[in-house]
Amino acid sequence: MGEKNSDTPSPAQSALLPWAPPPLKPRLSSSSVTTASVGPTRARSSNFLIKLPSKYPRQRHVFLCGNHDLAFLCFVGTFPARPDRSTRWSDTWELYAQNEEREGWHKGEGYNEMHVQGRRWGGSVDLMKAVTDEHKKFLHDLVWVHEEDIVAIHTENDRIECWLIAMHAGLEKTKKVEERLQVLRSKDPSLHTVKELRGRMNIIGYS
């Protein structure tokens, strides 16, 4: 994290103007952020993120959903509701049902109303009950895709205006962009899995 230091943008920030935020003065050493894993401190990490908008009101904060977040929110029961408000998700099990015994799907309390991603990666019922309403809301509100209509990138000879699309694991060349964006914008709860949120070997910078 950081705080505003001056109104003079760095060369890297200038390349993204006017979209880039103000320059920041580092508050954390690089050695303290060498890994993206939250490890056993999920609650503390969530609290840190939840407080950012009020702590830095001049900044805009966008929190993207990833495959681990998706599995966790499915497990704790905060997955986006169906249009008919149904809470039963057994119809999402079919695609992976042959892996149920091998993967050791969750069969404890509430499993019969759980989305397949929650059953596949779920854990302790005590953990489910320990998640606060504030954290559940944070998980529920995570966006599957974020878009910026105009992002200006300055090259040596020109200024290019681009359409920025951000998501956890990127789009695939074989899929129509607008088609997939509609799915991601809607946070379609009927899907067995969401490829754009999953870890894939062809993603640069994935962690």
Automatic annotation (TrEMBL):
Biased composition (Low complexity): 9-18
Gene3D superfamilies named among the record's database cross-references: 3.60.21.10
Name of this chain's protein: Uncharacterized protein
SUPFAM superfamilies associated with the record: Metallo-dependent phosphatases
Region (Disordered): 1-39
InterPro entries found in the cross-reference section: Metallo-depent_PP-like
Tree of life domain: Eukaryota
